[in-house]
Write a structure and sequence with these properties.
about 250 residues; alpha/beta; Rossmann fold; five-stranded parallel beta sheet; four-stranded parallel beta sheet; 8 helices; elongated
């Protein structure tokens, strides 16, 4: 494993990866693994401020990992990779931290291999770590409250079949599912992890390439009894359980 900044004596190890929300989700096990490898260090997981609240749920089980947002970090809309890398590098140098940075090109991968594998390979970590150190924080009470809010029922008394659909009309991504079931869509007002109760309870899941798909994969969805449909209009990704999905 290579340190970009050769200050290995620092008590702070900064982990920097591509700042798409889905990318941060699939890289959160790396932060846990780095904490395991370097138990005497604090891990700063660089996170855009817009994702910070949600990402905390993926690292909260380890008090040695902290989601950190750097002032002046470019927004997603600026799309300035060189500026992102430069800001973090200068901040690390100024504070005399150590730095591990993985690939920064979102799809720097073999199209016939798992889309996110290069994040792990770049820094010499086995891809199986993604599942062995997948330690996100579920709040089943919150999940039940959200289920009741949206479906007027309880997770402990599921009496309705429904299809969960995740698209994003605000950005021009539409899914028109061919289903006779009641359609339930993602609630953006809640933490992404708290949608898992609904996603696991759905008879069908219809999803585009997104952070929710990353979460579904890490949570082992789809389950045996679920029909799953992946809409590839945004990205035709090769992911770990792709064989369970019907590609549309």
């Amino acid at each position: 494993m290579q340190f970009d900044v050769n200050n290995k004596s620092s008590e702070i190890l900064v982990f920097h990866t591509h700042q798409g929300f889905g990318d941060l989700i699939v890289c959160s096990p790396i932060a846990h693994y780095l904490s395991y490898l370097f138990p005497n260090k604090k891990i700063f997981f660089i996170t855009r401020d817009t994702h910070k609240k949600n990402i905390k749920r993926f690292i909260s089980s380890n008090d040695k990992i902290e989601a950190v947002s750097i002032p002046g970090y470019p927004s997603h809309s600026e799309n300035s990779v060189s500026k992102e890398i430069s800001i973090v590098y200068e901040w690390v140098i100024e504070n005399k931290f150590s730095l591990i940075r993985t690939v920064f090109e979102k799809y720097a991968h073999d199209p016939d291999d798992f889309w996110d594998k290069s994040f792990y390979e770049k820094i010499g970590i086995d891809y199986k770590i993604k599942y062995e150190f997948n330690l996100f924080d579920r709040n089943f009470k919150n999940e039940d409250l959200i289920y009741k809010k949206i479906l007027q029922s309880s997770l402990s008394n599921i009496n309705e079949s429904f299809a969960f659909v995740h698209d994003d009309p605000d950005r021009g991504f539409f899914i028109n599912p061919q289903t006779k079931l009641k359609i339930i869509k993602n609630d953006k007002s809640v933490d992404i992890i708290d949608m898992l109760g609904i996603m696991e309870s759905a008879s069908e899941i219809h999803m585009m390439g997104s952070s929710l798909l990353c979460l579904a994969e890490m949570a082992g969805l789809p389950k045996e009894n679920q029909l799953a449909f992946y809409y590839s209009f945004r990205n035709n990704l090769y992911f770990n359980n792709k064989e369970k999905w019907k590609i549309i």
